[in-house]
Sequence to fold (56 residues):
Amino acid sequence: MELTKSRQADALNENEHFLRILDRGIDDMEAGRELPLDDAFKKITELRDARRNARV
Fold:
């Protein structure tokens, strides 16, 4: 019973976090703060490389 409540709480927190991310993304699009596709993928690559290098 306790484990089920904990799992439900975790799922709810994940859903709320996901919805906040979506809301921020929609706000950015509405405000015109979106990157062109090529620039977005370059930024993703930069961030991924920085994260990998930070782990080492």
The radius of gyration is 17 Å. Helices lie at 2-30, 37-55. The mean pLDDT is 89.
